[in-house]
Amino acid sequence: MPVRFDLQSHSTHSDGALAAADVVRLASEAGVELLALSDHDTVSGVSEAIAAGEQHGVRVVPAVEISAVDDGSPVPRELHILGYNIDHAGAALTEQLEAFLGDREARTLRMAAALEECGFELDKKEIEERIAAGKPIGRPHLAGAVLRAPANAERLAAENIDDVGSLIRGYLIEGKAAFRLRQTPTVKESIEAIHEAGGVSIWAHPFWDISEPAEVLSSIDRFHALGIDGVEAFYVTHTREQTQLLCDRCAELGLLTTGSADFHGPENKDFSRFMAFDTYGIEPNLGPIAG
Known about the structure:
Layout: E1 5-6, H1 20-29, E2 34-37, H2 46-56, E3 59-70, E4 77-84, H3 91-117, H4 125-132, H5 139-148, H6 153-158, H7 164-171, H8 187-196, E5 200-203, H9 206-209, H10 213-226, E6 230-235, H11 240-253, E7 256-260
Parallel strand pairs: 1-2, 2-3, 5-6, 6-7
Antiparallel strand pairs: 3-4, 4-5
């Protein structure tokens, strides 16, 4: 019988709503057997998740989601590379992630300044607390800072922005006024860091970041040449056609095909349910991730 898996989830160690142990507990209650806690640019919650997995009967794969610059596209853009089966306690990966986190923090603060230039006030208390605690900051934390500032209420209502997702879509994605691109690492550097940590590298949610099928396929080909091991073909927002397209190309290239619902918390509008993705009858190829 196929294993019930969900290979991307987030805790308060990055932009999730729950502690790592609570993420694992809810995954267990949902029937997940194989789980990855894949916080952004950090593995600080992995040990806690593994311990909780042992308690709740869930096998937790050591994982990370690295935000990377795709410098091989006509216009540089940010994509996400997942790393599985990594040596999450190893010095080499820890040092590289610290550098990546430094750039993530700097980029987030540039976007904070850009939001202020757009005329928003920011309630920076949570951001400052996370920086002081050595925790990552990202777009959801910026969005929360805008939403919590009372001075923004009238403007946000006029622009139909009422939650983190709508604020991010309105101001903090590529092409919007307050978006700022990361400087490092590149996709190639991310893949190499994952491999050096003994892990498997997977391109996360291709059609979340790129809409054109031809561009997605050409990107898979480029990343395959860089040594990537697979693609997150099964994803909560991927359609049947997108999933089939990804699986066909991965089969041609001998790449793994993984999947996730990208759990961020039970109240998240888009990513609130484990295993909320569809395989459309296609057999995943998890390779060594499945154990």
